[in-house]
Design goal:
Two copies of one chain form a homodimer. Chain A is an alpha+beta fold. Chain A folds into two domains: about 1-130, Jelly Rolls (Sandwich), CATH 2.60.120.10; about 145-185. Chain A contains nine helices and eight strands. Chain A has a four-stranded antiparallel β-sheet with strand order 1-8-3-6. In chain A, α4 packs across α5 (about 115-145). Chain A is elongated, with a radius of gyration of 17 Å. Chains A and B meet through β5 and α5 of A and β5 and α5 of B. Chain A binds a DNA duplex through α9.
DNA sequence: CTGATTTCTTATCATTTGTAAAGAATTGCC
DNA sequence: GGCAATTCTTTACAAATGATAAGAAATCAG
């Protein structure tokens, strides 16, 4: 759990009481590659922290597997649109490598907000940062070409490119695998 | 300010003390159509509530005017990626109609978070809802066709379509005005 | 009301991206 | 190692979208 609290420290410092309250609602899991951490159709009531490994949020659009986002070690992953709306998610979370994750029970976490304002503040800041990322990604999808988006990814997250099959990258960029192959060929 | 507090009530109920603390950092403004509420390049330190009228967030990509989003009356508008990062925004806020807005000083607001946990909670929930909207929009840009996106907008926000020039709608949908014309012609 | 400006549509052609299919390369498994 | 499955690339063709330009329609200013 050391890594988790180091991650938290980037956003907000917690009192010892807050830390142990969070610890009490966390569980550690090891998940095999390819397994679903959360299945499609399930309402999101868990926030995951990735200690080791990698995951993605995915869904199906007309039978096509679409990757909405990736998460590497030292990152949080959750299906926000379900977590904050209480509605079931059409998306699932799948592990892309053998991974160790910490599951934070969101229902209990939200209850802790009443007792520990510093916990509420911590997660407010974490999700504000996620919000900013999503807005930036929206901009890139709205008015950058597929090639620009690929070069962007190459520059900002070369890790992802190394560790993930290109077909997943393609749908993440909003294009087909064939189209991505073409872009890469024009070196 | 009645409308503002009615809007707040949807998310979190405030104590009277919290309400007057917010009132103290709000100012009302009337802005003419076409005027910039916030210019491009400015760091976002204000959250706006639209009492009457309409606004958009816009920026330039290769000299093309791009609309990132619209906001109607009874909605909040802010350049989130600047507000939460403290970095200057490449985006501006422009009024699309004669409008009455309430400007909330964000620097002072964030300070109020320490004294009034219910204010922190209120804005946490407001921005969580904005986050959810942005994630849903991302999905639509990532894997829906331009035509699907247009039909979606037609169904969910016919108001916007009635009140705004189509060229702004086009860039909002991530396409050119010519392309939008074509889609509309195939009735 | 009238002329000027802006917005919208239509047409043509170029470019990008999608689809389908086939083969090459890689990975996984026994 | 060697077979099977998956992933990646390439090709050919179709569909969607972009760029440009020209004209129609709507809006605005005086």
């Amino acid at each position: 759990m050391t890594r988790l609290f180091r991650y938290f420290d980037q956003y907000n410092t917690l009192t010892e009481g807050a830390k142990s309250a969070i610890l009490a609602i966390c569980t550690a899991h090891t998940i095999q590659k390819g397994r679903d951490l959360q299945p499609i159709g399930h309402t999101c009531r868990t926030i995951y922290f990735i200690n080791r490994g990698m995951a993605r949020i995915y869904y199906f659009k007309d039978d096509n597997d679409v990757t909405e986002c990736f998460a590497l070690e030292n990152q949080i992953i959750a299906r926000v649109e379900s977590l904050f709306s209480g509605k079931p998610s059409r998306k699932g979370i799948q592990m892309l490598e053998v991974s160790e994750v910490v599951a934070i029970n969101a229902t209990q976490l939200f209850r802790l907000y009443d007792t520990f304002p510093d916990i509420e503040r911590l997660f407010r800041k974490i999700f504000e940062a996620g919000y900013v990322e999503t807005v930036n990604r929206l901009e890139s999808l709205q008015f950058h070409s597929a090639e620009e988006r690929y070069r962007d990814l190459l520059q900002t997250s070369p890790d992802i490119l190394k560790r993930v099959p290109l077909k997943l990258i393609a749908s993440y960029l909003g294009i087909t695998p064939v189209s991505l192959s073409r872009i890469r060929a024009h070196h």
